[in-house]
What we know:
Elements: H1 2-6, H2 15-27, H3 43-71, H4 77-102, H5 104-119, H6 126-162, H7 186-231, H8 233-244, H9 254-312, H10 314-317, H11 320-350, H12 359-372, E1 379-380, E2 384-385, H13 388-409
Antiparallel strand pairs: 1-2
Protein name: Odorant receptor
InterPro entries: 7tm6_olfct_rcpt (IPR004117)
Keywords: Cell membrane, Membrane, Olfaction, Receptor, Sensory transduction, Transducer, Transmembrane, Transmembrane helix
Amino acid sequence: MWTQFKKFGLDYDDFPTMMDNVGLLLWILTINIQKKWTQGINLIFYLMTAIAFSSYFYVYVFSMIWLVCFHYGNKNVEATSVILAIGLNSIISGTKIVFMKANANKIKNTVHNFLKCDSQVIPNTRFAKNLRKNLRVVKKRSLIIWVTFAINGLAYLILPLASPGRHFTIDFFLLYGLEPMTESPNYEIATVIFTITSGFAVYSMVGIAIYFLVIVGYNEAQMYALSEELRNIWNDSQNYYNNIKHRINDKRQIILIKKQIMNEFIRIRLRDVIKFHITNINLLYGFNQEFRITLAVEYTLLAIAIIAELLGGLEHTYLALPYTIVQMLMDCLAGQRLIDASDDFERSVYSCQWENFNMSNRRTVLLMLVMSQKTMVLSAGGFATLNYSFLMAILKTSYSTYTTLESAVK
């Protein structure tokens, strides 16, 4: 058990181990993302997930709709806004689980294809070492996000226990059929239900989000490693020639032979870089096709949640608002880092000292330059690119909508 737990640390930064880490997180939710894991999921996990999901549906779907549409409605706009914000924030977890379950086979194929690509990396080469170095950054980023959400969820659960009297984190949030909620045994029942549903919502959301970050992070790590290979390709060809020149017998043709040897080395290296580049493009395209619709739905819900959190007052939503923004930030961060890596690859193509290559290799570099100008991006529904600009646009639009609605309500 301890050996398996240690593999979640930064020392284990190879891609197969990272995917095993993600797979274990999702295994508890009865989601299997690995083709190689053919054993059945333990019945206890199915039972735990069923109980947690049923409680989650009762709290964040059924009770939320009842509170927003019937109990509070227009009579208490502040309470309605708070409940709507909490509900929309939590519904994201449900959409992610439903998506993962509905696309189980596609996700297994995606993970298998990424692992297959990684298996083609030759160990102990500079490319493999740079890939591991960049994957370590991805894993560190994922761990920070996981810990951030865990702390936020823990604070959400502990806060009412630290307050005098019988309270809940959001006193507005009533459960259908458990009124009055501050009296026994309703208080004890509600506390248990809120603990289960909040823990389930945070764990499932962040577990699936980590899967997203690691997969996209692998594309990012590959692009940075490929960029480094291109920047060193000319020097590598010279080093290769210096290592084998003693084998050349005909010293009169040494200059001509030198160019032939170096350009052949460059041809093979460019071929390998192109192969990995095309593979990464295809992998990202397939991943985008899977997630584009669910990302569009999630960002629509999160934008509405931000507006509702502001309308409900920060004194009630000071924990929910950071939770919402970080959900948006982590996807946009992954998208921005992928764009940065793609741009870095384009710059490396032009700075590979192609002017020293023969005509055939120059044509190959030209082809690579054309391919690299189509930046690799993450898409939400095909209408938006996930990056910092999109995040700021969402926040600005949400705040503008909030100010308009606030003046209308007042």
